[in-house]
Amino acid sequence: MITAYIAIGSNQGDPVAQAKCAINALQQLPNTQVTAVSSLYSSTPMGPQDQPDYINAVVEIKTQLEPLSLLDLTQEIELNQGRVRKDERWGPRTLDLDLILFGNTVLDSERLTIPHYGMKVREFVLYPLAEIAPSLTLPDGTELASLLQQVDKNGLTIWQA
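^ that's the sequence the OP posted. Answer follows.
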């Protein structure tokens, strides 16, 4: 079993419900077990600011799936929850599931880059990840704790109902 981490983001269609539904869907994946789930966080949007704040979380899984199979299944979850892929980068979305780490795998293909290309600078990934895996070291040897010292929270807060 490989330990992998999936980031969740939503700012459309009841984002809290979208995130919770995504977590439930991840629990149903074949040959996969959800082993940790961060709190839900509220974050300001990356990119265009004329959109609602996001709800974010990170889920830790143990899986026997291959990275591209996991990608296919997470994209299916996104589609099932109303995700429409548009040309607009960082625009509003019902659900975004990003495979950010897959064990110590380093992969750079047309469909998938692992570790996720933006994870080292995104507070809405790093802080939830640190909540569930505080002593994590990335495949390149970078300690998660050192990244937290370099990335401001930018208003990131734990979501309160």
